[in-house]
Amino acid sequence: MKKYLFYVLSFFTLFVYAQDRQLSLAADVWPPFTDIDGEKSILSDLVQEALGRMKINSTIETMEFAKIFIEINSGRFDGSPALWISDEREKYYFFSKPYFYNQLILVGKKGSDVSAASFDELSGKKIGVINNYAYGDFDKNQEVEVVSDLSNQKNLENLLSDKIDYMLVDALLIQYMLTYQLNDVTEFLAIGKKPLLVKSSHLALGKHVQNAKIILEHFDEKIKEMIADESYNRILELNWIKADVDGDGKMELVLGGNKAGTSAPQNIYGLMHDNSYKEKNPPQRYYVDGKLYETWDNIPNNYKLDLVVDSTPSIEDTYIRLDFLD
């Protein structure tokens, strides 16, 4: 009964809050995850969709990454749509549960060895990362030289001009590049097969924000709804994702739309479990059109349709391209 009353009160509080104001959020230019208006911003879109379902209006302003924390701490902004957690940040912000996992792949120049399974294998190498992002301790390998710059574009330029040996790039950005810039990628780059580092993304709200914890609890529930109703897949433009849709602690493969392909999927972007990419036995259960199936063979044949791959970039897609040096 007490638990029921708590949820009733929290829902009422959230309803009142939603009528009072909107959330002002700040993010950096980090395509395709967060970006300025009119450009592909999948994490911004996910967050604003979830908040909209809570009847909370939200705005997202882009700025330099380091400035985000200054502006939130000053009270000008309420939080940020996509932050990685660190001990230092938890002093000032409340975080949602992870709603996305950035899976960082090792990328080198064509011909480079990108088979490293850990940073221990990269002693003496220069690794390009983005300024002020909370990457962590790189497996406590003091012999890895971390070189920070402003963006993936700058890191790519540093890589191709031999200023660094490797760069860390999100697997989803690589998927987009392989779709829209295949010739450039195959000519210039070597790409690792598995993530070296996985970081969870969260909606973060400053501790000064009224009812921040309640807002984040309801946000977590809306993300679950979005996975179940396939809007999560749609926003990320992914046919399959890996997530725990039934809350049993085990991962399922979740289909977006009604076309599963003619054979069981092989390359799945594991979104909701930071160690899932290390699993020797991948999940076998499938969530299709609101129903769970224990095996691929159990999925009705009317879903096993050929996928039509659209390799023509939309106007939004063109903004996430990286420019390769001549």
UniProtKB/TrEMBL annotation:
Coiled coil: none annotated. Residues 22-244 form the Solute-binding protein family 3/N-terminal domain. It comes from the Bacteria. SUPFAM superfamilies: Periplasmic binding protein-like II. Transmembrane segments: none annotated. Keywords: Signal. PANTHER family: ABC TRANSPORTER SUBSTRATE-BINDING PROTEIN, MEMBRANE-BOUND LYTIC MUREIN TRANSGLYCOSYLASE F. This is Transporter substrate-binding domain-containing protein. It comes from Lutimonas vermicola.
